[in-house]
Here is the input.
Amino acid sequence: MKNAKPSRSADIGGVLLPYQQALVRAVAEHSVTVYEKSRRIGATWGVGAQAVLTAGAARDQRGMDVLYIGYNLDMAREFIDVCAMWARSFGLAAGEIGEFLFSDQEDKGMERHIAAFRIKFASGFEILALASRPRSLRGRQGFVIIDEAAFHDDLQALLKAALALLIWGGRILVVSTHDGAENPFAELVNDIRAGRKPYHLLRTTFDEACQQGLYRRVALKLGKEWNAEAEAAWKAEIRAFYGESATEELDVVPRAGSGRYLPLHLIEARASRDIPVLRYTCDDAFVHQPEHIRTAATLAWCEDNIRPLLDRLDPLLRSLVGMDFGRVADLSVIWPIQIMPDLMRKTPFTIELRNVPFEQQREILFYLLDRLPRLAGVALDRTGNGAWLAERTLQRYGAHRVEGIHLTEGWYRDHMPKLKAAFEDGSFDIPANAEVVEDFRAIELVNGVARVMVRRATAKGEDRDPNAGQRHGDAAIAAVLTIYAASRDWGSLTNFPIPRRDIMAPPDNQSILGMTQGSIATYLG
Here is the structure.
């Protein structure tokens, strides 16, 4: 570390766990460090060591005052106690812990007194635990620690006040567990990952802390002998204690509260420019065309657009499909995937159908299903008019491969988390298309259930299709159906791809009318 004597650095190197050491190094090397962490992994322990080394060092060793800001008085007492322990361990000359009052100005000009704590060092510097108010930093200089930042009343204003201290060589550490995806702390983390803030970011989950020795320290403190079985039981007990909150509290994944279910940065992280969006739009007159004209036009579109992409697929990989059905106001979206050897659910392309007649939607879907390699399962929206297509598909491909889904609140409650998990673990990709991204942003958490709300949005953005019209989160619904299909056990498959049927072109537009029922079935694939 740059601001501590070598002997003191060596002391903490053998006491702090690796992730705590990484935090101490980061604070010494960066002007602003942001640390998103699991609950109760001993971050305060490491931060306290850094605070004592900073305040106990001489000015020529980059010593300075340390200004600690927690969101309540108990946090301040705990932090000061930790710092006092470190001061004694390091043998630094420190005064007694002192509690004092300082004046703060109310918004209406009234003065009030706020309790604070301090430890004074022989270096001339001190550790101060201050109130969670931007004005408490006024006129001060040093190393600012904002603890449990997500729970402060006005983090943005507090951080703005702290940044002023950087001008004269100060430093800032912002450390916290998460408190929702829309919280200012989560937004700060996202800004750093997006490159919008030039700060250093660290992250430690509960599992990572355990891998680096957290439970060994817990067992040591409790006087227990460490073994793998005891650690596994302890971890299971901690996760059971947090229940549904474990994802946020332990896995450092901010929950989506009311509002957006999937944060934009997470959606964009899974977007790939290599995934095309195929769009087939019919005008209002198309439905009145003779059947053979509609069929010929639709199959020609399939041959020109879908067939080249199908030919690129690996014939040995399993394929699955999800489809959200729409006829007038909404799109139909067909979302195929292939399961890669590393279990990545790879999207080769998506298909969007707008104002396409029922029969032609069936033709497009069957064209795709007949030619996908090793078709394992299909999950179709059977809500409303979608029931017709779901039934036809089940009759053709069998109940062992096709399931119609009635999209209810209960179904969304059970299966939307699977979609979010696929985004979070990077096992699913989507087209880098502005309209598709907006469909995923249309998923909202309402009364604890993530679903697409009733309101419809007009497509927009640079990738906007002039014929796209309104959207209703259709791509997102197709995607969650696909993820559901991938999560089902559809039974064993042959090791060989399902044979593809070639398209038979009719001799002319009139000859289809005289074809037999059997030859029509063959023609339609």
Summary: The chain has 18 helices and 22 strands. The chain has a mean pLDDT of 83.
